[in-house]
Write a structure and sequence with these properties.
This protein has helices at about 25-40, 50-60, 105-110, 150-155, 155-165, 170-180, 185-190, 225-240, 305-310, and strands spanning about 5, 15, 40-45, 85-90, 130-135, 145, 165-170, 195-200, 200, 210, 215-220, 245-250, 255-260, 265, 275-280. With about 300 residues, it is α+β, with helices and mostly antiparallel strands. It has a single domain, classed as 4-Layer Sandwich (Double-stranded beta-helix), CATH 3.60.130. The strands form 4 sheets. It has a 7-stranded mixed β-sheet with strand order 1-2-3-13-5-15-4, with helices on one face. The chain is globular. The protein starts with a strand and ends with a helix.
């Protein structure tokens, strides 16, 4: 089946039509959407007035929902507003009221405004994420996406060789530390223990290489922390240049689906006195980018430049 997709950006991202996400999909429709994701990496479905259960059912056409025993947030289970299988990315508390500006959950959520890839801090990072817009503020709140495939393709050959075998450490501790949020309990610190991910990954369906960057990445194995963070910051700046970025201006009942194996994204500022109710489902990833148990413990490296490190 051919499903119409209108490009939204010269490099990636498309608006798909002819699909009702509230209904079960035929096998050919699933295949067409998967093909669209492999090409565009971000797909926008307009006018999808979904319930939580309909969003979950639609998501399951493309794999299994992500399910981890350890927390990926500081919001406690008893304070959650929504049921299992769907994540609350609103600015609402468990009673449906706008969070206080002093709420530590709100402070933690501000880290979503940094460039990141969902669940890169997990041993097996996420496949697709699907975000449904239920209630939107009157201004702001765009979500920006960056194509990490195109960013990799644009690297010079020396930098491609430099990054090819690098392993990064990812943790929610790193991304929240970047915005000044360090108020973590011992239990949260244990849950957010760093995991290792390849800096260059290959998409299992398209075969395209991409940069696996994220604000959760705060170290490179074998490098000093200052050198690693400056190198990752430089790569992120290059990879999020305007030519690689699509900014999605939300409309009510938009459903946006993106491939975390090919993109980064970030939320943008809005009036926190207004409601932003958006809900996310996330698909489990395919496999670890590296085998966690096979890697030696991280050892601090002597100060040296990146080129010398790679040459050894």
């Amino acid at each position: 089946m051919s499903v119409p997709i209108r490009p939204l950006h010269p490099v990636f991202a498309g608006e798909i039509s002819g699909i009702d996400c509230r209904k079960p999909l035929r096998a050919d429709e699933v295949a067409a959407i998967e093909a669209g994701m492999n090409h565009y990496a971000v797909l926008v479905f307009r006018d999808q007035n979904l319930t939580d259960q309909e969003q979950i059912a639609f998501t399951r056409h493309f794999g299994e929902l992500e399910n981890y025993n350890t927390a990926g947030h500081v919001r406690k289970r008893e304070d959650q507003r929504l049921g299992s299988g769907i994540a609350d990315f609103s600015n609402l508390d468990k009673n449906g009221e706008i969070m206080s500006g002093d709420d530590r959950v709100w402070f933690f959520k501000l880290g979503d405004r940094l460039w990141h890839s969902d669940s890169s801090f997990r041993p097996i990072p996420a496949k697709y994420s699907l975000l449904s817009a239920r209630v939107l503020p009157s201004w702001g709140a765009n979500t920006e996406f960056a194509d990490m495939r195109a960013a990799y393709d644009a690297l010079d050959e020396r930098t491609k060789a430099e990054v090819e075998e690098l392993i990064c450490e990812h943790s929610l501790i790193y991304s929240r530390e970047a915005i000044g949020f360090t108020d973590l309990t011992p239990e949260e610190i244990a849950a957010f223990r760093p995991v290792r991910q390849r800096l260059v990954r290959t998409h299992p369906a398209s075969g395209r290489k991409s940069l696996f960057l994220s604000s959760h990445a705060g170290a490179i194995v074998g490098w000093t922390i200052p050198e690693a963070r400056m190198f990752l910051r430089d790569l992120t700046e290059r990879a999020t240049a305007p030519m690689f970025v699509y900014s999605h201006a939300w409309r009510p009942h938009d459903l946006v689906m993106w491939d975390n194996r090919s993109t980064m994204h970030r939320a943008r500022r809005f009036d926190r006195a207004e409601i932003r109710d958006v809900r996310r489902t996330t698909l489990a990833g395919d496999a670890p980018t590296v085998q966690q148990e096979a890697l030696p413990p991280t050892q601090p490296a002597p100060m040296r430049n990146a080129a010398a490190h790679i040459a050894q």
